[in-house]
Design brief:
single chain; about 140 residues; alpha/beta; Rossmann fold; 4 helices; globular
Length: about 140
């Protein structure tokens, strides 16, 4: 099954995990980049609020041809218990009919309160959620 890992990483934790998963599975990989990178305080306050409200952020165009993949793995950090705003921007570009695995990366908690809503974003795009994984990492010092 041709698989793509699309990931957004703010601090580098998600990037490391995405690279490891790509090496283990042989999946193609692409990093999603915000057009205007938030500085840390803005991410903590405005970014967290935007994550709770499921707002999007502007991202660079995704280079991979999403229609050419059977499965798409989306990996993103968790801010205030929700996927970071870049995740919402990725979801908006999903073509229907894809199998989607979600991997949420958190240093502090998880997404137990937002998981169902996050899965619904995928199914509303006409895609199937094949797996939903919360990964807790060590916070960067």
């Amino acid at each position: 099954m041709k698989t793509l890992i699309l990931f957004y990483s703010f601090s580098g934790n998600t990037r490391k995990l995405a690279s490891k998963k790509a090496a283990e599975t042989g999946a193609d990989i692409e990093e999603v980049i915000e057009l205007k990178r938030m500085f840390v305080l803005k991410a903590y306050f405005i970014g967290a609020y935007s994550a709770i409200k499921r707002k999007k952020t502007e991202i660079q165009p995704i280079k991979s041809q999403l229609n050419g993949y059977e499965k798409i793995i989306i990996m993103a950090p968790v801010w205030a218990g929700n996927p970071a705003p870049a995740f919402n921007s990725i979801v908006e570009q999903l073509p229907s009919g894809k199998k989607v695995e979600l991997v949420m990366v958190s240093a502090g908690g998880g997404t137990k309160n937002s998981a169902e809503g996050t899965k619904n974003l995928i199914t509303m795009r006409g895609c199937e959620v094949t797996d939903y994984i919360d990964i807790k990492t060590m916070a960067k010092k």
